[in-house]
Structure formats: C-alpha cells, structure tokens
Protein: Dihydropyrimidinase
Amino acid sequence: MSRRTLIRNGLLITASDEIHADVLIEDGRIAALAASGTPAAEAFTADRTIDATGKYVIPGGVDGHTHMEMPFGGTYAADTFETGTRAAAWGGTTTIVDFAIQNVGGTLREGLDAWHQKAEGNCAIDYGFHMIVSDVNQETLKEMDLLVEEGVTSFKQFMAYPGVFYSDDGQILRAMQRAAENGGLIMMHAENGIAIDVLVEQALARGETDPRYHGEVRKALLEAEATHRAIKLAQVAGAPLYVVHVSAQEAVAELTRARDEGLNVFGETCPQYLFLSTDNLAEPDFEGAKYVCSTPLRPREHQAALWRGLRTNDLQVVSTDHCPFCFSGQKELGRGDFSKIPNGMPGVENRMDLLHQAVVEGHISRRRWIEIACATPARMFGMYPKKGTIAPGADADVVIYDPHAEQVISAETHHMNVDYSAYEGKRITGRVETVLSRGVPVITEREYTGHAGHGVYTPRSTCQYLN
Ligand code: URP
Ligand code: ZN
Ligand code: ZN
Ligand code: ZN
Structure:
C-alpha cells in the first residue's frame, strides 16, 4: 500500500534553487514538486500533511566523513553506529559515509566485513563506506577494483601516523594509479607524519606536554607540503584527489593553484576549523585535549582562507570528521603527553546548524549551505541525485528547518555519546524540526521517532564531480 506525505508551504532550498513549493512524497521517494498555491500543488493529496509555513524544506545532510566506533590510540571512538546515526538525525543529517579500516597485514575485505557487521541493523539513517588503505600491496590493489564494483568507491590514505595508517609516496602512487584505472577516488590525510614525529619527540624532550603543543608540532607548513606532494603524485598518476580535513591557509593555497590549472583536485574542511582555533587547544587544566584532532586547529587567521575557499569553490565540502572521545577516561590518556591524546572531535549533530549560523553571519548563501553540506558530498561520493537534493525520484530524505528558532549548543542536550561539546554555549539561530529518511519520520517536531535498523547500506557509484 502506498503512503503519501505532503509538505506544504515551505521554502524549498536546494543547491540550485529557492522556491516556495509543495513536496509530495510517495513510497519513500520524492514523487512531485509544485509551486505552492498553484493548481498543480492544490491537486496533491496525501495521508499525512506537514505544514512548513515559515520553515525551510531542505535535503537531508550528507556527512561524507565520520568514524563511528573507530579504534584509535588504544581506545574506541565513543559513538556506535546506533548512537552516532541517531545524533546525526537529530542534527538534520540523513546519510553518513564512514571509514572502514584495513589493518596492516589484513585485507580490504576483512576490514569492510568488520564495518558492515558494526553498522548492519544499527543505523537510524542510511550509510555508506569509504575504505582506509593502510597496507598497499598487490593483493590490496586488486581488491580496490572489487570494492569499486560493489559500491565502495573511495579510498583514504594517510601521509601521517607512521607505523599505523601511514603510506609512503610509492604506496600512494601505486594506489593512485589503480584509482586512475578503476574510477576510485583517493582521499588524502595530508600531513607530513615523518617530520611531525621528529617534532613531537623534540617537544616532549623539552617538557612540552600540554595539548597546545599538538597544534605547534603539526605545523601548517607540513600540511601544505603534504598537500602539494599529494597533488603532484595524483597528477603523475592521472587520478583525481580529494584532500580531507583541510585546516591551513597554506594548504588551501595549494588546492587553489591546482584547481586553477584545471586539475581534478578537491578539498574538504570541517566545522571545527571554521569556528574553533588554537585558543581552544590552549584552554587550561588539560581542557585543550577536547580539541585535539588532526589536522589540528589553527590560529584564528586561517579561518578567513577557509571561508573564502568555500565561497570560491576551492573547497567543495564540509564534513565533520566526527570521531568523539570522552574527556573523562579517553582524552585523559594523554595527560602528561599530548601525543597520547586520542585524535578526534565530536560534531556529527552540529554540522547543519553551524553552517546555517554561517549563513546567518553572511559567510555563505543559503544555497551554498545546501551545496557544501548535501549536494556536493552526494556527487563527490557517487550518491546523487538519490541523496543530496529534493527532486522527483530522489530518496525522500528531507529536513524541515526552522530558520528563526534560537538554540544553545550543549553536552547537556546533545545526543552524541560523548561527555562534552566542542561548541558548549554557542548560540545558533536555526534548528532542525522534523527529519524524514526515505519518507519515514525519524525526528518529528523535535522528538525522536526513528529506530535502529531503519538506515540501510548505500552502495555508491564513482565520483560524479569530475571536471
Ligand atoms: O583527528 C582525527 N581527524 N581523527 C580521525 C582520524 C582522521 O585522521 O581522520
Ligand atoms: Zn585524517
Ligand atoms: Zn577522519
Ligand atoms: Zn523503519
């Protein structure tokens, strides 16, 4: 039996349009759109009608970078797929792409199977996987082809973390050459980890153990150098490149230069780099540990370059890199040695709101908000137009957003399974009211109405964003 939902009188915002339109949903998909008040819209009938007068009607957010239950530094990221995807839904995100991990000595298949097992039956919203490649060898390269065919079309490599996820330039080049052949997208953690490890050792020897030294040793220049090197390796391989969690203005400059040359080079930044800074890393009483992630937070001056990059499309995507560790018991592992603080920050619930705040403050337009948070990540990772837009045939992943509601972000009220908020006390204008995932209400007027297992695995096509 078909079930129809009608969303009336909202301001429909996509990456390309703003229009007062009624949205008809049938069997989990967008069935039709019509300008509100027109005969076509008046003819829509449904079992359930949502009045969105005064509200925005936007595509569900697509967060292309999360780490639920990720093992790191002897512990695990605190959100499970169940708690993390529920929190994502609360924040207006209806799709995540999480990172499955190949262990050194293991296969891609083993890593991917393990992540499927963690996620299956537990997610409140739809999900896909990227693959972290930590061990490039002949077998791994062959497996990359198989993964692309089954919908895991992007592969993260690390120029940082020697001895853990690190790949050397030869391994990176080989993986890029393979991606050039099979259509995969290489995602790069661009920091010179070999040089950083020298600076870490020297800092600790000087007794510099506080969290703020994490920011000092992971220098902007070493992000820029790695970004430059990754771009050149990708150019040699003839492969597209997506640089994750860009934080340094010098790295943005490298991306800008490559894009001016017409290369298929893309960049992602995250809310923490847009809204937080080394001032947070320097908070006393070890509180700075809450903000330890890599690439690290930068001095406030870098933020202007990130905002500019988002406006000029030298940066295309804002993802969260959601990787939460509790202050108590997890971040504390690094008391007395900043290099032992688990790297990562919570944020999957906050991204859509923080970026709406950026609209309110004039950094980006409403349509650009939807483009960088929904449409482009969906295109970049091969899910468009099923995800990332509101158009006939698309999945009915829809958020009713109240642009006038006021809220204060706090760990007291958030839904992520972590004991602090990186944005504690921050005032936001705008709030998610109702969220549909494939037509099913998972948040209904600020109440959770979803369930674990509603979310399904989403295989992806290859990148849809190439020049
Ligand atoms: O500090 C971070 N970003 N932790 C998550 C792993 C990664 O490098 O993305
Ligand atoms: Zn990374
Ligand atoms: Zn990450
Ligand atoms: Zn369900």
Summary: The two ends are 43 Å apart (CA to CA). Residues 67, 189, 245, 293-294, 321, 323, 343-344 surround N-(aminocarbonyl)-beta-alanine (ligand 1) (CB under 6 Å). The chain has a mean pLDDT of 98. The domain at 60-380 is CATH 3.20.20.140 (TIM Barrel).
